[in-house]
Amino acid sequence: MNYWNTRLREMTEYIPGEQPQDIDEYIKLNTNENSFPPSKQVLEAIKEAANDKVKLYPDPKSTRLRELFAEQNSLNADNIFVGNGSDEIFTLLFRGFIEHNGTAAFTYPSYSLYYTMSEAYGINFDKINAEKDFSIDLQKFSGKNYNLVIISNPNNPTGTGFDINDIRKFLKTYKGLLVVDEAYVDFYGETAIALVKEFDNIIITRSFSKSYSLAGLRIGLAVSNPEIINGFFKLKDSYNVNRISEAGAIAALKDIKNFKYNIQMLINNKEYLEEQLYELGFEIVPSKANFLFVKHSAIQAENIYNKLKNRKILVRYFQGPVQSEYLRITVGTMMEIKKLIQELASITEA
Ligand code: PMP
């Protein structure tokens, strides 16, 4: 590793959920994608955009998508930045917003990319541990003068959430940058977007990978005041969002009927999955997202994960304190859930 710098050598690698090559052989409930496909209209918009114009660079600012999202959310286009997935937005935050001797804080457990990116850019961070029920008092972030706090609302992997009034209360005294990662907000949560008009130090991030069934297109948004949004534009790669992805995301935002139907189906399926898991002896953390964080009363999580994998069902197992006692299971289609429950019944009976 002669050509790696010290930071690269020492940083912990982000481990994404498995994406097997023979994907059609698996039931995939490990990366919180949407098990339902995008609508016909969205797929058609994507196909239509795959034309000879791909010889040209895309709009460097994804103007049409920003204008549409702004219109739907009573904002202006200059409140919105479009990223190559919300992951790109986190990268940019660490690349250019925080001084390299600054300190960040994130909850634990949470989306581990925050820790990885912090390490990659040499920014020190504290992990604020959740309580036994996975709730977190935001005032715990008031102890030090953190330059950056990221909370995931609802939180991955626990599915728990923060109250918007608690976020507002926190912002009244906090002077650093607060990022509220709303990748899963569409499933049950309440958005903190209104706070963008009240405070100049909040950024909301959104993802098209979950509720819009477009993980493969890589589209994420940052919503904030124009000054912060300009910072993202200054920092980003020249053409960070491609033509085809922008066209798909625009069609997805327009297709409100399918979006709502899709969300309702997932909520119904989640309730069914919860009932079935309770019957099999699982403890379930109340979830506001499209996944459940669960633990069995008698069998170790890693053991269940391996047995399911042998049966071609992927769920997520994380190493690390507390979270290694749990499995994270993405809510799938009814067929996927029934197969999962059938296999879990045979594992727990054995
Ligand atoms: N935030 C959270 C909390 C997530 O779980 C994920 C997906 N793993 C992301 C952001 C990344 O989303 P995107 O696909 O938009 O990069």
Distance between the termini: 47 Å
Q: Which assembly state applies to the chains in this document?
A: single chain
Can you identify the CATH class of the largest domain?
Answer: Alpha Beta
Please write the string of helix (H) and strand (E) elements. HEHHEHEHEEHEEEHHHEEHEEEH
Which ligands, by name, code or SMILES, are bound? 4'-deoxy-4'-aminopyridoxal-5'-phosphate
Q: How would you characterize this protein structure?
A:
This protein folds into two domains: 6-38 and 257-349, Aspartate Aminotransferase, domain 1 (Alpha-Beta Complex); 40-255, 3-Layer(aba) Sandwich (Aspartate Aminotransferase, domain 2). 36% of the residues lie in helices and 16% in strands. The protein contains eleven helices and 13 strands. Helix 2 packs antiparallel against helix 8 (243-254). The chain is globular. The chain binds 4'-deoxy-4'-aminopyridoxal-5'-phosphate.
Provide the descriptors you would attach to this structure in a database record.
2 domains, 4-stranded antiparallel beta sheet, binds 4'-deoxy-4'-aminopyridoxal-5'-phosphate, 36% helix, alpha/beta, Aspartate Aminotransferase, domain 1, 350 residues, globular, Aspartate Aminotransferase, domain 2
Annotate the secondary structure layout.
Layout: H1 6-10, E1 27-28, H2 40-49, H3 63-72, E2 80-83, H4 86-97, E3 103-108, H5 113-120, E4 124-129, E5 148-152, H6 164-171, E6 177-181, E7 202-207, E8 220-223, H7 226-235, H8 243-254, H9 256-279, E9 282-285, E10 291-296, H10 301-310, E11 313-314, E12 316-317, E13 327-330, H11 334-349
Parallel strand pairs: 1-11, 3-4, 3-5, 5-6, 6-7
Antiparallel strand pairs: 2-8, 7-8, 9-10, 10-13, 12-13
Helix pairs in contact: 2-8, 3-8, 4-5, 9-11
